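User: Sequence in, structure out. Go.
Assistant: Echoing your sequence, followed by the structure tokens.
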Amino acid sequence: MKIYVVLLMLIGMGLTEAQAQKAGHQTILVDQSGFYPGLDKRAVIIKAAAGDGFELIAMPAGKPVYTGALSGLKSTGYSGMKTRIADFSSFQQPGNYLIRVPGVGDSPVFKIADSVHQDLALAGLKAFYYQRASSALDKDYAGKWYRASGHPDTAVLIHPSAATKNRAAGSRINVAGGWYDAGDYNKYIVNSGISTATLLSAYEDFPDYFLKLKTRLPDAKNRVPDILTEAIYNLRWMLKMQDPHDGGVYNKCTNLSFDAMVMPAQALAPRYVVAKGTAATLNLAAVAAQASRILRDFPEQYPGLADSCRAAAILAWKWALKNPNLPYDQQLMNKTTDLKVTTGAYGDKDFEDEWSWAAAELLATTGESPYYEAFFARLNAKVNLPSWSSVGILGYYSLIRCHNKLPVSYSSITSILKKKVLSIADRYLLEGKTSAYGSVMGSSRSDFVWGSNSVAMNQSVLLINAYLFTQNKDYLNAAAGNLDYILGRNAIGYSFVTGIGTYSPMNPHHRISFADGVADPVPGMLVGGPNPEKQDGLKYESAEPELSYLDNVASYASNEIAINWNAPLVYVANALECLQKKGMESTK
């Protein structure tokens, strides 16, 4: 194992030397994909300028079309860097441009365009197709990233921790399908929960837009949006992870240990489902309830699936009522069996947020009083930005979205939920005003965690939700500013999405991208981003929070990909595309 890690480090350190050097030594940082004409547009200068002005240069003509003044010096406190901001928001003419600052140089070329993030929106969603387990990817749909099927998962073993009277240890069940979780080949319910729900929520918020969006998927059905086709691929796997005899849900489908860096078809280790737990079961309850109300509109394409989802959600809820506090404790489990599991634990011991989320989704779908009572009982609980282990606010979004469908006696609760969401959104706006990078992201040291880029995208999801029920454009600009951060206006100078922008990761911690023999990584994947904790033990160029990133295949702490990080990227990119299209239509 040690030899294996060293080999990865040596290969990873090779990076794409020229690209890494250029990205790391940029002096003018921009969204490398570009900007919408009607939203804020800023560049960040990280080198002392010869003066106080900047120019916007039209390309390829090389002619200045706008001049402006740089801001005063700014700093974050999370690195030694000082910045100045070039704000050219008032310029709205579509075209290709760069920012030029005397004594500093030029930025990468970027676009100002009405559908500037269309490629990103499509690539981010298509990335889920590339993560499909139990499925061959055909060249007609996957391009040069086509591959053979792996992990059929049609005869997965019952781990001793999951054994029951009806399913003995060593017996086999079918849990085919679903998405690979991240850079590894295992499948985890709690991470699938927030990921699938975020895609379903994107559809619920922007249904007409998604009806027209085409990413070319092989099993798309007539008049079914591609985002639902992809979400349902994972949903069907989640449903298989429920024990039909009692309603409990297994935490994950996994090897005993992580696969080597090989393609799926070469990864042949035995697979297991492990112990059931409260978090996993409530995740399924929430996702299945949400899917049920969406699938009511597609009875011909998915006959009976809406009813099956509703039944699965209610069965899961009933199991959770009998098992309200059963954590998945992998360390404790391993003390009871010789079949020790060392893959990702996703351990969670606080289930109040899962109860709140599941209750909200079941309330939105059924309108029944027990779910209202369960949700209301937790209304005073602190609500956080969502992550796999903190999902309470997802229920807030759904109840606000579905307020017109709730019984009249319950609908008034949404005004309380809106105030709680706005209290966070307004704090983001306040923090963003003094940002050194023109974004909400990075305003707090706590933003720089494992998967920090998903913090940025989930902040944007919250801000977009705030915009949807207030129509306050400040929230929309702040959401777009975080996407600018992801796409290059950050201290690293990288666009953190593979295949998007001038300088993007070439060596993500992603087994398929490493082993497929294709120089370019699978496109559309959001890597984790700066993480000063460096759990991978590698030597980064900087220990400072906003600079702790390494484009290295062995850097799972900063450069891995994960479905729960890509899902909010999909929501944000497509939401902005949709809302800008609506804005253009309203001005015609």
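User: And one key feature?
Assistant: The chain has 20 helices and 14 strands.
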